[in-house]
Write a structure and sequence with these properties.
This protein has a 5-stranded mixed barrel with strand order 5-9-8-6-10, surrounded by 4 helices. The protein contains 6 helices and 10 strands, in the order βαβββαβββαβαβαβα. The chain is globular and about 50 Å long. The protein has 234 residues and is α/β, with parallel strands linked by helices. The longest helix is centred in the last third of the chain and has 27 residues. The relative contact order is 0.23. The mean pLDDT is 97. It binds S-adenosyl-L-homocysteine (SAH).
Length: 234
């Protein structure tokens, strides 16, 4: 025991089901329409929870993980749309940091994406980034994993023009709908976090076809990496 208690958040059932099944001695608690499962994941004290889709659910979930369960670290696992020609379906993104792409207070002089009073980007924890990279190498050595920015908003991005803006103006490597809210909530609570995402689609005009085809396999790959991370942190 090294004092770590990891909160593992996935937005959807298929992102957390394998992790929940792997939990030993799990006890469940219900709050805010979420069921929190507390137990040991490969020997590491963990709380696994499906938060639901979108930023508000994600932020609520982090606060509950902190206040009800006293987690010391937060990990967000799941699927995402690629914003880079170098990242294909099934590849992995480990967050260097996270930012919103749907916050716009530019009329008052703030950069696109920045909420007044908050940093423009939320840096992920260096140690968790390194651990995520090591776990990727161990369980998916054949899979391309890259560290970079996760950009989030309450939008499913499925258009080439919007994808280009997220890559160019926001510097995003992938886009999804929870990561920046997890990052924001973890940061204001002083909790180290990392976001780990497997690519399910390319966030362009093919995304509405690719996403339903690849979400399950991508989510399962990500969960396998999380399990390996937990084993190495125990
Ligand atoms: N299958 C769900 C809807 C999923 S919304 C349903 O019909 O109920 C997409 C989810 O996958 C979000 O949790 C988001 O974080 C992630 N995601 C994957 N690709 C994305 C993209 N191109 N744009 C935004 N979010 C994406």
């Amino acid at each position: 025991m090294n004092g770590i208690k990891l909160g593992v958040i996935g937005a959807m059932e298929l992102e957390v089901e394998a992790l929940r099944a792997a939990l030993v001695g799990a006890r469940s608690t219900q709050r805010a329409s979420m069921t929190f499962y507390e137990g040991a994941l490969r020997g590491l004290p963990c709380v696994v929870v499906r938060c639901g889709i979108g930023k508000v659910n994600a932020a609520l979930c982090v606060q509950l993980l902190r206040d009800l369960f006293g987690v010391t670290h937060v990990l967000n696992t799941g699927v995402a749309g690629s914003l880079s020609a170098q990242l294909d379906i099934g590849d992995i993104v480990v967050s260097s940091d996270a930012a919103y792409h749907d916050v716009d207070v530019t009329a008052l002089g703030y950069p696109a994406g920045q909420m007044p009073g908050m940093p423009a980007v939320f840096p992920a924890d260096a140690d968790l980034i390194a651990r995520a990279q090591a776990a990727c190498a161990a369980v998916a050595a054949d899979v391309h994993a890259q560290v970079g920015r996760v950009v989030s908003g309450d939008q499913f991005v499925a258009q080439g023009a919007r994808k280009d803006v997220l890559a160019r103006e926001f510097g995003g490597l992938c886009t999804e709908m929870e990561g920046a809210a997890v990052a924001h909530a973890a940061s204001v609570n002083g909790l180290p976090f990392v976001i780990l995402r497997a690519i399910s689609d390319k966030a362009d005009d093919s995304a509405h076809m690719d996403y339903p085809t690849f979400e399950r396999a991508a989510a399962a790959r990500c969960a396998a990496i999380v399990e390996e991370m937990a084993a190495r942190m125990a």
